[in-house]
Amino acid sequence: MSSLPRRETLAPASAFSEPEKAALYRAIETRRDVRSQFLPDPIDHALLMRLLDAAHHAPSVGFMQPWNFLVIRSPEVKAELREAFTRANDEAREMFDGDKRALYSSLKLQGLTEAPVVLVITCDHTRGGRVVLGRTHNRDTDLYSTVCAVQNLWLAARAEGVGVGWVSIFHDADLRAILRLPGHVTPVACLCLGHVAELHTEPELQARGWRQRLPLEELVLHDRWPENL
Amino acid sequence: MSSLPRRETLAPASAFSEPEKAALYRAIETRRDVRSQFLPDPIDHALLMRLLDAAHHAPSVGFMQPWNFLVIRSPEVKAELREAFTRANDEAREMFDGDKRALYSSLKLQGLTEAPVVLVITCDHTRGGRVVLGRTHNRDTDLYSTVCAVQNLWLAARAEGVGVGWVSIFHDADLRAILRLPGHVTPVACLCLGHVAELHTEPELQARGWRQRLPLEELVLHDRWPENL
Question: Residue B172: which residues within 8 A CB-CB, separation 6 or more?
Fold first, then answer.
């Protein structure tokens, strides 16, 4: 393999134009976690494949590409997912106290049966063979690659007028049973996808008084972690 | 808290224009994992803050925002990271056999001392308090949020003409010791950042014959995991 000719593939790559940069930053800043705004309109095949292709162009450790895209349109599977969510969410609610519990109960945290497509993005830990370049010392890097795919898809969806909501309140065993996942595959993200005509202008949890955005400056540190933090 | 007035923050949100979509897809498709193309030019404060602000606008479980941004410009810290990388990489090389080991040895897998900025993005597992909305059943979701921040930054960097390389070949204990991280903080990504004038037109590992891009169609499944896969 080391005798393969090295293809020279370097090409000029400068900064984008100002309008191009603005488009990217707009996707990043106006992306929302959608639970309630899904329209019933179907997502057509070409659009869905553009979104999945964006995900597939995520970086991956050792070019492992550990992801699969489980596209769920079956009302039966969606209903099972919603039941599993409800079971876990009933437990979750009890973990909060007083006012926080009341507010929690008023939040809509999933759109599993309204969204025309539920997309589960998985990570196959065996994808790259016995040893994967870059995954030799941190075994979680394949999960991280899979999350990069989620975020690529989320931004592409924003630009396409498709809302995405990440539902994470499940018992792992429930997800595995419903989706019939083999043991070497981890369900990383369960995403609700649907066209939207409107979105929140700020994160819904902020608008509802759950939690505020932290000042960026307070999150920036220099060279080493400070002793007093 | 449940008596707080609900701010109505919904606004129209349609698909982007075709040129805006094209800009986003260009960032996604031309983003590369950079190891060798860093220019020595410094990254100025305003540019770095735009990149960190893009990261800070990632989705996070329960709006937890678990990330910190450790900006490393100190040659001493960079040299220590490079030593730790070299130690781990010497071990990694031995895990590959024959031709694969020879090819591995010829790959440049980090640019820690050439890059003007090394950025370590961390996850503080205590950030959201005792119970975090959405993190009640999968404790890894805060790590996933942090990776979403990495990917936002990576795409913004591409648009700004800044290359990013994710270095993952470290012993976790080495990273923690060098950066003096407390136990409740996980180092998720160690990123090399620098201006670039050129980039590879395809993933470098593909150009070098390490591994090819998988056909997207083979990664798409429907409703439940098939029995024969």
Answer: A137, A138, B187
Residues of chain B with C-beta less than 8 angstroms from the C-beta of A14: 161, 197
Model confidence pLDDT, tens digit, residues A63-90 = 999 999 999 999 999 999 999 999 999 9
**Predicted complex ipTM exceeds 0.95:** yes
Q: Say if residue A191 is exposed, middle or buried (CB neighbours under 10 Å; 0-12, 13-18, 19+).
A: buried
Give the pairing type, strands B220-222 and A67-72: parallel
- Answer whether B103 sits within 8 Å of A64, measured CB to CB: no
DSSP state, residue B129: -
What's the CA gap between A190 and A81, in Å, rounded? 9
The residue that leads in pLDDT, B201 or A229, is: B201
CATH number given to B33-200: 3.40.109.10
- The pTM assigned to this predicted structure is 0.97
CB A169 within 8 A of CB A110: yes
* Radius of gyration in angstroms for the set of CA atoms belonging to chain A, rounded to a whole number: 20
The answer for residues whose C-beta is within 8 angstroms of residue B82's C-beta and 6 or more apart is: B110, B112, B113
Which chain A residue is nearest to residue B142, measuring alpha carbons?
A: A168
Nearest by CB: B137 against A15, A30, A88 = A88
Per CATH, the architecture of A32-196 is what?
Answer: 3-Layer(aba) Sandwich (3.40)
Domain residue spans of chain A: 32-196
* Interface with A, mutate which of B49, B73, B147, B180 (most A CBs under 10 A): B147
